[in-house]
Design brief:
The chain contains 22 helices and no strands. It is mostly helical and 423 residues long. The chain has one domain. Helix 6 runs antiparallel to helix 11. The longest helix has 34 residues.
């Protein structure tokens, strides 16, 4: 245990990237333990020897194809036609568009970048303050990590050996609650802050928006319907989704050109490469933790020191919220799953519920300083400073924290739907 901590601390202090720090810590541990250094690359390769991990780059490819084909414009148009006549209609439409796009992109950053440019620009033109528009978009983007298909959910399922299909279903109700809570927030403060509303565009415009975006809106239906009907597995769904996105861009809407595909593939490989190297380094480090009995030591200690399942979950929430503010979501998952999941099982916490709670906590860190990667994205789109963005988003954390409390205190919010489908 001491060897891992010392090697990791040394690597971090030297300024190495996180994946390099994890790999160096693993290499230092096996060297100091008298084991062969060749174990580290073996364990790194073994970490990728999992069929569900194939879904990660395919879901990334799907999101990039949808973005390149400008599918989000059609989604935003439909959401605006449906919600625009309400008080704060553009804000409500932004949340609805993020919910729909979340069923395609699977990432908070992709959601913020994919819909943000259109939504924030529309809200600013309607009279919203730039920081308010950006804060609404950023908070709604977190839905992308909870609603299937979700890249963090895939990584959690692969790392913890929990069914990805069950985890996908477990994220549906929390994702809908996140959207509902943010919409309620808009309704409550919209009148006080004078959020504008637009006249109802008419049934003709609504039908036109639906017709124009129908095939884009069908993407989540095809994706989720195929998975939950048993037509294809979550991993196969990623391939189906990528092909569908390619079909939409090249054939249906013709907004994607063959010349664009090379750029999309390069962007996908860059992002997938980062995810892959993190998974590989974390796999080697996780093996080192296992043979040094860190999980076997920490889990019984937590069970004996913390009295009761509820207290354990509250402690984990506090820990994960803090970690999420300083560490990238996927890296934090890969590091903490081998430590916290055995303790959760010791308290009788359902691994499916615990997975959604972990991801929910960590994803809130993407809209909270000092790291807040989604805040960086939305502040650039809105052309405001990171400091203004950080202050503006704080009130919008409240409804999301209420949903987090709900899924922590009442397990059926995450376990009922998977049990209904799979049991």
């Amino acid at each position: 245990m001491a060897e891992i901590a010392l090697c990791w601390l040394f690597a971090i202090l030297t300024g190495l990237p996180l994946f390099a720090a994890m790999a160096l810590a693993a290499l230092g541990f096996v060297s100091l333990s008298g084991l062969s250094p060749s174990i580290v690359p073996q364990k790194m390769a073994q970490a990728m020897n999992a069929f569900p991990i194939v879904a990660a780059p395919l879901f990334i490819l799907m999101g990039n194809l949808l973005s390149a084909a400008k599918i989000t414009d059609r989604i935003v148009r439909f959401a605006t036609a449906v919600m625009g006549s309400l008080r704060g209609g553009y804000a409500q439409a932004s949340i609805l568009a993020s919910l729909i796009f979340a069923g395609m992109a699977g990432s908070a950053v992709a959601d913020a970048a994919g819909t943000g440019a259109v939504e924030i620009r529309a809200m600013k033109r309607a009279g919203y303050r730039a920081e308010t528009a950006a804060a609404i978009n950023a908070s709604a983007a977190t839905i992308g990590a909870i609603v299937p298909p979700s890249l963090p959910i895939v990584i959690f399922g692969v790392t913890s050996d929990v069914s990805v299909g069950r985890l996908f279903l477990a994220g549906c109700i929390p994702g809908l609650l996140m959207a509902a809570s943010l919409m309620t927030m808009v309704a409550v403060i919209g009148k006080a802050q004078g959020f504008p509303s637009q006249r109802f565009p008419g049934w003709g415009e609504l039908w036109g928006a639906l017709r124009d975006g129908f095939f884009a809106l069908m993407a989540p239906v095809i994706l989720l319907g195929g998975m939950f009907s048993g037509l294809f597995t979550p991993t196969e769904a990623a391939a189906v989704a990528s092909l569908y996105a390619l079909f939409l861009g090249l054939v249906i809407y013709r907004t994607l050109h063959v010349a664009d595909i090379g750029r999309v593939l390069v962007e996908t490989v860059e992002t997938a490469g980062i995810v892959t190297v993190l998974v590989m380094a974390a796999g080697a480090l996780g093996w080192c933790m296992s043979i040094s009995r860190i999980p076997q030591t920490v889990a019984p200690w937590m069970v004996s020191a913390i009295h009761g399942k509820l207290l354990f979950l509250l402690v984990c929430n506090a820990l994960l919220l803090v970690v999420g503010c300083f560490m990238e979501t996927l890296a934090a998952l890969l590091i903490l799953i081998p430590i916290l999941l055995p303790a959760a099982k010791g308290f009788g916490v359902d691994p499916v519920q615990f997975g959604i709670v972990m991801i929910f906590n960590l994803i809130l860190g993407t809209i909270h300083p000092p790291v807040g990667v989604v805040l960086f994205v939305t502040s650039r789109i809105a052309e405001i400073s990171y400091e203004r963005m950080s202050r503006a988003v704080l009130p919008w954390l409240v409804p999301l924290l209420i949903v987090l409390a709900g899924i922590t205190l009442w397990p059926p919010l995450t376990t009922w739907l998977p049990g209904l489908v799979f049991d």
